[in-house]
Write a structure and sequence with these properties.
76 residues; elongated
């Protein structure tokens, strides 16, 4: 049973990474169009694309220590 949970978590993690990669690729693909349409500077494009990284960063900053605080739980 434990092996099934580990495999499910691993597959879910892989899917999450693929989705994240595609979202970054889509943002990178439209940068040129945003600059042409709205006349953004390079710095403004950074401000537009920057928030895409906040969720990942915050989850690492707060999620990791929270998991360390809880520790690994064993099921009965």
């Amino acid at each position: 049973m434990e092996n099934t949970h580990r495999r499910s978590l691993f597959v879910a993690s892989c899917i999450a990474l693929v989705v994240t990669a595609f979202s970054f690729a889509a943002r990178a693909d439209i940068v040129g169009e945003l600059q042409a349409e709205f006349g953004f500077t390079e710095a403004e494009i950074g401000w537009v694309n920057g928030p895409a990284l906040w969720g990942f960063t915050l989850s690492m900053m707060f999620g990791g220590p929270f998991c360390d605080l809880l520790g690994r739980q064993t099921s009965a």
